[in-house]
Structure formats: C-alpha cells, structure tokens
Amino acid sequence: xxxxxxxxxxxxxxxxxIFFTLAILALFRLGSIIPTxxxxxxxxxxxxxxxxxxxxxxxxxxxxxxxGGALLQLAIFALGIMPYITSSIILQLLxxxxxxxxxxxxxxxxxxxxITQYTRYLTLVLAVLNSTAFVTVAVNxxxxxxxxxxxYDKGIFPVITMILTMTAGTSVIMWxxxxxxxxxxxxxxxxxxxxxxAATFPSALWGLKVARPGSQGWVIFLLVIALGLVVMxxxxxxxxxxxxxxxxxxxxxxxxxxxxxxxxxxxxxxxxAGVIPVIFASSLLYLxxxxxxxxxxxxxxxxISANFVRGDHPLYxxxxxxxxxFFAYFYVAITxxxxxxxxxxxxxxxFIPGIRAGKPTEDYLAFVLSRLTxxxxxxxxxxxxxxxxxxIFLDANQNFPFGGTSILIxxxxxxxxxxxxxxxxxxxxxxxxxx
Length: 435
What we know:
mainly alpha, three-stranded antiparallel beta sheet, two-stranded antiparallel sheet, 5 strands, globular
C-alpha cells in the first residue's frame, strides 16, 4: 500500500493530477465557508450553535450533511452539489419517457454531451429557485426558529445580490467538478459529494464522545468507530464481488486476416448501481427536511419533522429502504441494457457458451442481472440502515443522524477513485492498491 502511494507520487503526470484534484477540493471547501454579501456572520454562527444543540438538531444535521455545513452558514457555495444531483435525477427519469432524450442517449458521446448540456441548464434553473427560496427564508428570519438579524439589509438590491451569488456559486461548483473529471482523479461530482459528506463526518463522530462525560464517552466513541470499520470492510467486499459471464468470439476472415477466436467475460457486479441509489434516495429525503426548515410553522412541517427527520423513526427507515431498492433497479435498468449488449455480441461474432445468440442471450443476461440486482439492492438498503439501528441502541442517533449513508458515500466514492489511480499505475507497470 505504501509502495503504491509512493509510485503514485513518483509518476509526474499522476502526481500532477492528484495535486490538481486536492487544490480544487481546497478551493471548494474555501467557498463553503466564505459568506455571501449582506450576511451577519456572528449572528448566523450564534443561531447555528443554538439550533444544533436544541430539539431540532437532527433536522439541522441532515441539512448540513449534503452541504458540508455551507447551507446554514449562508456561504457562497451554500447550495452545494444538490441542484446538479436533482437535475441529473430529473433528466434520467425523463430519458425513459421522452423519445427525443432516449434517442440522444443512443447517439453515444455526442448525445451524452447534449444531455449534459440540458442538465447544466436545468441545474441553473433549480439553483435560482433554491437560492431565492433560501434567501427569502433567511431575510424573513425564519431560517432558525426564534433567531433574527441574519442579514444587515433587507432591501431588494442586497437580496438580489445574495441570490445571484449563490446561483453563481452553483455554476462554479459544476465547473470545478468538470475540471476534476477532465484533468484530475476520479469523477468530479462524486468526489465533491464525498468532500461535502466527509467535511461533517469528523465533528459528528467526535460529538459522540463529547455528549457523554468520562469513560462512557470514549467507550461509545470506540464502539462506533469499530462498527464503522466493520461496515466499511463489508462494503469493500461486496463492491469487489462480481459475476463473470464467459464470452467466446468465433474466428472470422476480414480481408486477408483471421480475427477472433478469443475468450473474454462480461463482468456484472453484485452492486451494479454503486452508491448512486443511496445518493438519489438521500436527496429525495433531503427535500422534505428542507421544506420543513422553510415552513417551520405549518402542520406539514411538524409532521415531517416528527417522521422524516429522525433517522430512527420507522417510517423514515422504511421509506429510505424502499427508495434505495427502487433507485437500484432503476439505475441498473438505464445503465445496462441486455438487448444492446446481446446485439453487440452478435454483431462481432460473440456468444455465451451454451446460449444461442440473439434473443436467448438477451434473456439470459436479463435473468442474471435481475438475480444480482436484488441482493445488491438489499445490501445497499441494509448497510444504509444498519448503522442507524446500532446508533439507536447506543443513543447516538441525534449526533450521527444519517448513519450508513455517510459510510457508503465515503467508501464507495473513495474506492472508485482508488481504482482509477490503480489503473493509472498499472499502465506504467506498477502494482496498484488492490492486490
């Protein structure tokens, strides 16, 4: 492992990519603590401290999770990556029902570029709507219950300036994510989600120890760390598991050359969807909590605060589990098309031993995929809920409200980034991290 790290930094272009990614993430975190114009920073910090130690600390911790603490501090990157995630979900749902978007998806790289462009436009629209709603709540002193004076001036020009600043911050975040993807290491948006979640992870973990005096705090702290390590080990084991379907290519003459005759395999992972279903499900559950924050006095907000904010509530846990299972099947269905794979195999003379080409191959791939997606979806749902259940028994749920979601995102994105670094090392005849 240490040798792999040394080799990564010894390779000039890979070292440059790693340092470039770290610099972008540092800039991203800097923008998450710089306040927007017209914000009373001392009053916001005071109100935030009061809110996170009160009866609604679970709500505020949930909001802080996906913004890395920037949203409640009214920073220029307050909206974080959430508008982009929401627009991505909407575009992927529309791809299934709108023929034009489905045709673009089948056009390859050119079509995907066009869909990405639509995603950017929708992200800006959502950023304007989100920033307008959020700034309005802050200006009207409804961001924190019973706390006023968050802004210096409530005039129209300062309010518009705040809205434009937060919207521009979302555009910069999109640009930074694309820079990481093109010139850095890993998927830019996933790495930035990882950064936002990891930013609140140490303080939330240390809160378990601070909440209990003496040796009891250390015992709970060490137990939670041990549980986290066990969950991480389980996540890594399942993420590496895959079903390899053998594929043989028949020999054929192309001009005067004999091609084919090779044997390969199609790797189908147990968790084919990765951490995306957890991010999608968390994003949807984040929206009711945000609504409850905007409209704290309504009956709907009271019901949401009682049922969809506390991670140990049965309704929250069941909804979260079902959303993860749904998005796991949905994401696998749109990313792995058995019909397309079977057609490509038939076009190039490939076949699965014992399975006829064409429709039988498509049915076989669909059967294997469905058999693997079911345990993969259950795995994601159970891992996401298992830490929450354990924290209930440890009476630590309020300090660590999202449980397994944080671990899944951190481990899943971290593992994917490590794999990309490993592939770069193997291209240069170095041994990677995962042996």
